[in-house]
Amino acid sequence: MNQQINSISSYLKNHFGKKTVKLSIDGGFTCPNRDGSKGYGGCIFCSENGSGEFASNIEEQVELLSEKWPDANYLAYFQNHTNTYAPVEELREKYEKVLAHPLINGIAIATRPDCINEEVLDLLSELNEKHFLWVELGLQTIHEDTALWMNRGYELPVYDYAIKALNERGIKTVVHLILGLPGETKQDMIESVNYVTKSGAWGMKIHMLNVVKGSRMEKDYSDYNSFESIEEYVNFVCDLLEIIPPEIVMHRLSADAPRKILITPEWSFRKRTILNGIQHELKRRGSYQGCKCEK
């Protein structure tokens, strides 16, 4: 863990003893919010690829990354769409095939809280006993008006059930939140962060709302800016980090939309600038993750 932020890169290096990289895997899944089970078109901000623009196969990604990190450790990350949305036999086959790969030392599974049932929990528990594992839940906000607007397709108690069930089985859980959703104030976002920290999340992903090509937002909100400037975003993320308990592992602080599909904010592709800005602002404040948590 570095001095200011409990980052996932530091956590993984401490856990495995070396640089550890996630490989974004396309598992061939869809989403109940796309196939008509819960809705069509997905969440309003989601791209055509289910927010998995960097997903491919293991060999391709290792080849790309091996020059930069020749001795890296690798985790398989089932990223795009909903990666527990299939019969459990199919899930087992896909997970175990990836885990059997000689270069893979663990697995991360991104999904929706409404796609966590008892059969899935049993499978995840089994895998968790044998392998390094975490599960990611796409929550985005705790506010029901916003969730309805974005076509999320489930209500907050569904999240409450899923994270409680995962915690009871000792499965590490990472929760996604989007900052700057239309109509939400900074206080609304703070409330979402506080709710997640109290729900028992092991890790958290926070990032600004991006409007991207291929999303439903492109048609109706193409000129919407979640934050007016890098400086505004950096300052607000630092405010949030100060109230996030230091034991929560931060997996993301900025969005990853490729520049070729990004519409707004036009500066959000400058990820290194944003992350450096967060570090510099925390240093300027003499601040760090959790410094303003209630004791």
Note down, in words, how this protein is organized:
By secondary structure, the protein is an alpha/beta fold. It has one domain (8-285): Aldolase class I (TIM Barrel, Alpha-Beta Barrel), CATH 3.20.20. The protein has 10 helices and 9 strands. It has a 7-stranded parallel sheet, sandwiched between helices. Strands 7-9 form a two-stranded antiparallel ribbon. Strand 5 (172-179), helix 7 and strand 6 (203-208) form a beta-alpha-beta unit. Helix 9 (230-243) packs across helix 10 (271-285). The longest helix has 15 residues, at 271-285. The chain is globular. The model has no long low-confidence stretch (mean pLDDT 92).
CATH-level-4 superfamily name = Aldolase class I
The CATH topology turns out to be: TIM Barrel
Proportion of residues in helical segments:
25-40%
Q: Write down the oligomeric state.
A: single chain
Strand content: 15-25%
- Which strand order do you get reading across the main beta sheet? 1-2-3-4-5-6-8
* Record field, number of beta strands: 9
Instruction: Report mean pLDDT, rounded to a whole number.
Output: 92
Q: Main β-sheet: number of strands, strand sense, barrel status?
A: 7 strands, parallel
CATH architecture heading: Alpha-Beta Barrel
The CATH class assignment is Alpha Beta
Radius of gyration: 18 Å
Structural domain tally = 1
First-last Cα distance: 21 Å
Any low-confidence stretches, pLDDT <50, length ≥5?
A: none
Number of helices: 10
